[in-house]
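User: If you would, consider this record:
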Amino acid sequence: MPVMTARLQPCAMIGHFAEPRIAESAAAALAALARRGVAVLVPAEEPGNFGAAVRAVPRAELAAEAGFMIAVGGDGTLLQAARLVVGHEVPLLGINRGRLGFLTDVMPQDVAAGIDAVLDGHCAADRRRLLEARLQRGDGATVRLPALNDVVLLRRETGRMLDFQTRVDGRYLNSHRGDGMVVATATGSTAYALSCGGPIVDPRLDVLVMAPICPHTLSDRPIVVPGDARIEVRSLDGGSGLAEVTCDGARLGDLQPGDRLEIAAAGGSITLLHPPGYDYFRLLRSKLRWGRGAEQQER
């Protein structure tokens, strides 16, 4: 991975600062940034007591003004940050105050060292592909959202299955019956797709995972397709359930009979900043508790 040396002033920081654990790490980050003379921006919509040295700006304007962005919280917070920086060359650093933290890999005790590594150009810059989901209505209207992790089609009614059809690059793949479908990037392979039986994908691979959610037919299994594939999902007319589409947890809309959901590469990427010594496989061992009988073999 290349070392990050881009413009790093000012720094934008997001998080749920009203939560004590988040506020604690945010304060540590602010102290480290102040020591290095870095100006800080925070969302005007997020409550917090930051003092006069911090400037509040509308959330939607953070990426346009920032040199880099810090997300304090869990992976969900970093996914929110990723949506903010789409279309901007603003790298992201994640401080982990969540549960697993596959994307936020700076631990609370290492906040100052992590920020120094960014400012000294010692962090690895990790480019991750983005998806875009386009929901095309039967009346011609289109809504769209980007996704770093996944696009999810999920039933909205308890006890009713969805009937839908998938195509890849215009070629018919399958007719599905079940609770829905996850289309995940390599980054998102350790999220919802993993709980659906999908594989863990090394983020260096440019592929997409299509993982059915609770399929009625046991042979309806996850499949891996090229990262530049165009995936199409249509609700079948005979389907009895209502389906909702989300992108990294953000609602895109409902998929109705006659609508078409298209999922493809967004044509852009975002940059994650990793502290020195970052090792994806070590991260997997730590988060998924692999190799517990051989802890001393390799660190």
User: Anything to note?
Assistant: The domain at 11-123+275-294 is CATH 3.40.50.10330 (Rossmann fold). The chain has a mean pLDDT of 90. The two ends are 20 Å apart (CA to CA). The longest helix spans residues 20-35.
